[in-house]
């Protein structure tokens, strides 16, 4: 009863406190409201831009989780009803999740996760529900703002709010929260998520070779507009007098255990991190050996200490030492300078039968990329709901990223696609898409398989993918390279969001990503930026650090491109000999029925036997895609046999032939001039000068032979034109048979006939 009573009190309180506010971004009005819908949730907000509305709810348990990490789940779902459609699956329900939903969920997760307080291990769920979509404004950025408002206006501990805007660049002008039509002509698609004090929490961008100075200006513009959203949500929280829970801090080692662990292990951990002869495996083994021995001594001294507290104490000491070596000694665990790249090697044409292949090695990160061509019909077709909500219908370039467990010396599940792999592949695809020619006649699939991983495998996929595309002969406009920048920072004891000292690291290792504060991935050509993704693990970055990261990544990117150019500078002038072939063939209208076959039988048989894909271009032209030249030759021979008709070529215009009736119909009779010919219709109007309603009026029967005059093929639809009635009036003409070619004189007339 008490729980029910408390729930009722909270519900009635929320009902009486409906709030709404609006913020103007450029010439667009963003509306935020709360307190009307889903009032049992800890927090709920509705964000509206134009006629697109997104509702976001946030619920967090009050009992701690058994997980020793932040158990946050973000779920973004595209609702068919919001788009005015009904799902096309057999149940007519929303089933499963699409790639767009997964990628948007990751976008929201990366935006809100850094602002949860350290040690907050309570199950939290953020659900984003599209209420209405107008087809003009994309709902993804609205969902980020909705999550910010739902968390900030709830009692869930969270160091927000944040604000999110999309920035486009069209005709030299920057556009904040552009419409879908404005984005079609934009060379930049940048999502900026900012926190208070003009800090950056998350960046996600796809660009068409945007210059560095333009990109930096777009980031600054985006951050400026996020502050308006943040101030609006802060004002709403102040007016609603929001108070946050004070949860117990969980899974933290006691000061005594922490200090004893530091005394035991500090020197040995420091020795491992300053021994530059270690690689990933040997370093991990050395640290693990120190950990096991340290834990044994700690348990002897503190027998009642929880196992996780012992492990947490060692992890804390190890992380502090690793970060201090970088901050105080300007040294990295592999001996590199802070801005130095790992050793890079490149190889192309690794496997001759493939359309394109490349092996890219950077330190202990190794990626094999392959390129495969297929017909345009193989392009990715978006589902109806995604098309209605995002405007994307299909794409003929895709990059698929695979991360098998052996890449990190582990055992795990093979197959399937987890969210991380999908996100890494989408980022690499964004980086390469701008250099792909728009008029390329094939669908292109790049696969990136990570064979070894010690950090920055997604950016290695960009480099390897670029090399493989050039090896395959795709005339990309420029080579593309990617690099990851890391951050080790020191914050003020009084204010954790104030950074007092920091070091930026070029081309980070896996351990530097794990112990660091940022994973800043940037890709582009020698001229500009094509993709960027910044994941921040602290509550926000000052703009100064973001600008320095872009500059440091630009320098590293040009150095990587110089190394890649030593292997292959530009795309091959021609595709490989065993590559796919496309040919257009013209099929005369007179041959089309025979070419296609009954119900498309001949086309299906051709595709099954040769692997060739056929699509119709216009009335007479068909496009043939063959995976190999030999398959194309086989298909062409198959078609020659299908369309072969020597007897029809012997027919003479104006000659009279003996035809056999094969079928009686209400509108005429079906006749053949020779046995292997397809039956054609001789219409009632061409049977006799008299008007008849049925061929039986003339005593015609199946199997009967009649004489008809041949007037060639109709130029518009290819049908054979025959007439019997023109032979009913006396005039001289020629009667021919295909068997003996004899001729005699009979009556004929040159009057106009209708098509039959």
From TrEMBL:
SMART domains: KH, S1. It is found in: Cytoplasm; Mitochondrion intermembrane space; Mitochondrion matrix. NCBIfam families: polynuc_phos, PRK11824.1. Its EC number is 2.7.7.8. GO terms for cellular component: cytosol; mitochondrial intermembrane space; mitochondrial matrix. Keywords: Acetylation, Cytoplasm, Exonuclease, Hydrolase, Membrane, Mitochondrion, mRNA processing, Nuclease, Nucleotidyltransferase, Phosphoprotein, RNA-binding, Transferase, Transit peptide, Transport. SUPFAM superfamilies: Eukaryotic type KH-domain (KH-domain type I), Nucleic acid-binding proteins, Polynucleotide phosphorylase/guanosine pentaphosphate synthase (PNPase/GPSI), domain 3, Ribonuclease PH domain 2-like, Ribosomal protein S5 domain 2-like. Homotrimer; in free form. Homooligomer. Component of the mitochondrial degradosome (mtEXO) complex which is a heteropentamer containing 2 copies of SUPV3L1 and 3 copies of PNPT1. As part of the mitochondrial degradosome complex, interacts with GRSF1 in an RNA-dependent manner; the interaction enhances the activity of the complex. Interacts with TCL1A; the interaction has no effect on PNPT1 exonuclease activity. Its main location: cytoplasm. Belongs to the polyribonucleotide nucleotidyltransferase family. This is Polyribonucleotide nucleotidyltransferase 1, mitochondrial. It comes from Triplophysa tibetana. Residues 654-725 form the S1 motif domain.
């Amino acid at each position: 009863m008490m729980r029910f009573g408390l729930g009722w009190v909270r519900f009635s309180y929320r009902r009486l406190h409906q709030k709404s506010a609006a913020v103007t971004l450029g010439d667009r009005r963003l509306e935020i409201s709360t307190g009307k819908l889903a009032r049992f949730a800890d927090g709920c907000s509705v964000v509206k831009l134009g006629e697109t509305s997104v509702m976001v709810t946030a619920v967090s348990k009050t009992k701690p989780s058994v997980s020793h990490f932040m158990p946050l789940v973000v779920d973004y779902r595209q609702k068919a009803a919001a788009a005015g459609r009904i799902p096309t699956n057999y149940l007519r329900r929303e089933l499963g999740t699409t790639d767009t939903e997964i990628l948007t969920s990751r976008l929201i997760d990366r935006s809100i996760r850094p602002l949860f307080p350290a040690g907050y291990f309570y199950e939290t769920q953020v659900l984003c529900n599209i209420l209405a979509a107008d087809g003009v404004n994309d709902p993804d950025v609205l969902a980020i703002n909705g999550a910010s408002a739902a968390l900030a206006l709830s009692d869930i501990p969270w160091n927000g709010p944040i604000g999110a805007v999309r920035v486009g660049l069209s005709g030299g002008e920057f556009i904040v929260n552009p419409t879908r039509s404005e984005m079609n002509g934009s060379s930049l698609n940048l999502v900026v998520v900012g926190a208070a004090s003009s800090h950056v929490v998350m960046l996600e961008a796809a660009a068409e070779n945007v210059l560095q100075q333009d990109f930096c200006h777009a980031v600054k513009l985006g951050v400026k507009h996020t502050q308006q959203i943040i101030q609006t949500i802060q004002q709403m929280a102040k007016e609603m007098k929001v108070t946050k829970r004070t949860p117990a801090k969980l899974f933290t080692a006691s000061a005594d255990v922490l200090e004893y662990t530091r005394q035991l292990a500090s020197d040995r951990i420091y020795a491992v991190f300053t021994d530059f002869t270690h690689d990933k495996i040997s370093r991990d083994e050395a640290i693990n050996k120190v950990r096991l021995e340290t834990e044994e001594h700690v348990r002897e001294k503190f027998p009642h200490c929880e196992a996780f507290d012992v492990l947490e104490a060692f992890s804390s000491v190890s992380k502090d030492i690793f970060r201090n070596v970088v901050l105080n000694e300007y040294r990295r665990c592999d001996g590199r300078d802070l801005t130095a790249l790992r050793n890079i090697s490149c190889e192309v044409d690794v496997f001759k039968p493939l359309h394109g292949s490349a092996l890219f090695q950077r330190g202990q990160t190794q990626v094999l990329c392959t390129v495969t061509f297929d017909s345009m019909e193989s392009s990715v077709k978006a589902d109806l709901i995604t098309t209605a909500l995002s405007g994307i219908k299909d794409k003929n370039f895709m990059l698929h990223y695979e991360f098998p467990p052996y890449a990190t010396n582990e055992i795990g599940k093979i197959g399937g696609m987890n969210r991380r792999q999908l996100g890494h592949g989408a980022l690499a695809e964004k980086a390469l898409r701008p250099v792909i020619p728009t008029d390329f006649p094939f669908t292109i699939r790049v696969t990136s398989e990570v064979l070894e991983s010690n950090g920055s495998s997604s950016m290695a996929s960009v480099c390897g993918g670029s090399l493989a595309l050039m090896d395959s002969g795709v005339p990309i406009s420029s080579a593309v390279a990617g690099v990851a920048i890391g951050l080790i920072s020191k914050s003020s004891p009084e204010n954790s969001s104030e950074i007092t000292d920091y070091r930026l690291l070029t081309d980070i290792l896996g351990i530097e990503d794990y112990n660091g504060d940022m994973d800043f991935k940037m890709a582009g050509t020698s001229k500009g930026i094509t993709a960027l993704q910044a994941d921040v693990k602290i509550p926000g970055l000052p703009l100064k650090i973001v600008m320095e990261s872009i500059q440091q990544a630009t320098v590293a990117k040009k150095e990587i491109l110089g190394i890649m150019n030593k292997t292959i500078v530009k795309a091959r002038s021609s595709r490989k000999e065993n590559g796919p072939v496309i040919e257009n063939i013209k099929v005369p209208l007179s041959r089309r029925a025979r070419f296609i076959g009954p119900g498309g039988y001949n086309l299906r048989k051709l595709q099954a036997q040769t692997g060739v894909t056929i699509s119709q271009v216009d009335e007479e032209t068909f496009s043939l895609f063959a995976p190999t030249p030999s398959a194309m030759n086989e298909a062409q021979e198959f078609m020659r046999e299908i369309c072969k008709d020597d007897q029809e070529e012997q027919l003479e215009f104006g000659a009279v032939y003996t035809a056999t009736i094969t079928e009686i119909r209400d509108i005429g009779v079906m006749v053949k001039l020779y046995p292997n010919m397809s039956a054609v219709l001789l219409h009632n109007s061409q049977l006799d000068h008299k008007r008849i309603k049925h061929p039986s009026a003339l005593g015609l029967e199946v199997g009967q032979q009649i004489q008809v005059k041949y007037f060639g093929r109709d130029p518009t639809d290819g049908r054979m034109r025959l007439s019997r009635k023109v032979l009913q009036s006396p005039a001289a003409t020629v009667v021919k048979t295909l068997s003996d070619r004899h001729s005699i004189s009979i009556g004929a007339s040159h009057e106009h006939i209708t098509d039959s």
